[in-house]
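Subject: two folds for Thursday's group meeting

Dear M.,

Sorry for the delay on this. The cluster queue was jammed most of the week, so I only got both jobs back this morning. I'm pasting them in the order they finished. Each block is the input sequence followed by the predicted structure tokens. Could you check whether the formatting survives your parser before we put anything on slides? The first protein is the one we discussed after the seminar.
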Amino acid sequence: MIKSLDSEPWRGLDERVAAVIEPELPAITEEILATIAREVPEYARPLEGNFGRGIRTGVGEALLQFVALIRDPDAGRGTGREVYVQLGRGEQRQGRTLDSLLAAYRVGARVAWRRIAAAGRAAGLEAEPLTLLAEAIFAYIDELSADSADGFAAAQAEVEDLRRRRRRELALLLIREPAAEAADVAAAARAAGWTVPATVAAAACAERDLGAVTRRLPPETLATVHEGDGYLVLPDPEGPGRADALARGAARSRLAVGPAVEPAAAAESWSLAQSLLRASDAGAVPATGLLRADDHLAELLLFGGTTLTARIAARRLEPLLPLTAKASARMRETALSYVRHGGNAVAMATELQIHAQTARYRIARLRELLGDQLDDPDARFELEIALRTSR
């Protein structure tokens, strides 16, 4: 598709203009290089080595391509565009922004226009082609700038992709079993640009929530997907501001957090965090907000032994089966309060929010149903497990 004169103003120039410009190119090149070195601080150094070759090539190619476009606008820039893409990539790799390179382009355009305008007037060019020539120069510089911006963005995306990949590898290395050697973790951390902290905490969330949770946590948090769950590693989890950060992370999503451990024990923290998420899915612990494994260890113990706790429940709670659902629920509530308070009717009444006499009546009924279980310490222990599990 042939572009319009508005987007490619050099199409309106007679190819004889190229013959006016071409003899000036060597002098224009040298003046542009000298002016760039003088006016752009990042480039104020000898044009030597790869740096010097890159700048000199960029200026020279820009001028040659511009003349070529005047002679044959339909030829396009072709592979010549790659020079400016690579210049943009180079700026990113050197850790600079595009500001200096774009400033150099503007300097080049200014110098080129001054020299080319002088040559045009000396050759008798009229005002209209000179005006179009100025427009063409600055439109062309815009194209070079866009090429370099593309190169810079592409290089930045590659770096970010590599960083994400290395951070994911590090996160998985931390929970490898058996634990990875400290030297291997340190090497992976260096490659990922991550400082190994004294302690870490692993956290788990639903995979669909991982992005939302991660955005609310500190940037040094490692995040990836593992075994179908969102998996995060929070450095220094008990440090200043960490509690607030975790609260923000769980503001709209459930977040299960394992205990703070040394990095070598991250697998333990992850196992507890993931188990807590599973327990939450099953309704064994709350299903929303911030969940800390250390606050739910008993529930996790019971949840992890589902088969055993089911057998204990079947054995210890069998006497309640003939009751109606409402009566069974009331007796289970009473029995749990009984084992928690050692049969103290007053304490039970306070917890259950009933009259002390009602509590005594319920205790009597409980003894009718459960009998000796209430007096045997081992039986009471199993009864409490059964009641907590069934609750």
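Second protein, same layout:
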Amino acid sequence: MPKLKTAVFDTKPYDRETLERASANCEMEWRFLPFRLSEETVGAIRGAQAVCIFVNDHADRASLSALASLGVRYVALRCAGFNCIDLAAAKELGIAATRVPAYSPNAVAEHAVALLLALNRKIPRAYIRVRDMNFSLNGLVGFDLCGKTAGIVGTGKIGRITAQILRGIGMRVLACDPFPAPEWAQQYGVEYVGLETLMRQSHVISLHTPLTKETRYLIRGETLRWMRPGVVLINVSRGALIHTKDLIEALKSGHVGGVALDVYEEEEGVFFEDLSGEILQDDALARLLTFPNVLITAHQAFLTHEALEEISRVTVENLVNFASGKPFLAGTVLA
């Protein structure tokens, strides 16, 4: 089998390391590109038959049409979310597309809980104080999670693991999902309720739902008003689940007690980049960063050794299958 030429967009050092390791025994020819896929950057593939993309690449109709004109017949997403690709256009153009649906649900769920614990107990502020030899405890008061109510919006693999961890802490857990899992809920003592009930009763709300037309801006002015005063909101799923300007108003009023985000609706061009020497142009993100009760990480929930290895394993195996005419791995096919 001839070497399959694959252009990898938005490549970071850890992507290159794990993809090369996963393909050590395969006939692969990689072209690692540090920038994102867009209609303007398509030409950089230089003869590749397949491309590999990540969450902030633009696999829209224009980009896919340009790829198809250059002979690309396969797009491999090295992520679970697929709102970055126009699947209808891919099907029309005869371009196959796959994703990595479950690289490490534990990694993301554990990060969600880590954010909650760090935000509640004000760990970042305490760390900075101690490094400055300030051992005062003023302003570092948190609250016991044990005995409080957590609301899990979306009970896929990540949502379920998050719920199980919070049950282990001793929290009551409510869940909301259009496709409930009653046997799992009964096993772990989780209660399925409607979205409004969940938001009205929960001290902590954690989002674990995909971004769709129905879930875009799930958290907005109306639903924020449903929430109890002092609620803590966690989002490690998709940035556009939250209407940022409405969230800022709820923070300013004090209605929302704390927010921890690993995703942001306008993160493209910001997250995954080093902007430490530049002026941040996103006014909403800059405003969020001024709140002492907001904790933001830059889309790193997935970033564990285990997750990276699984992403690369599935991606490489599907690329090899594509090159040899074999079926893609079960559960990974999008188009």
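Two things I noticed about the second structure. The chain has a mean pLDDT of 96. The domain at 4-103+304-324 is CATH 3.40.50.720 (Rossmann fold).

Cheers,
T.
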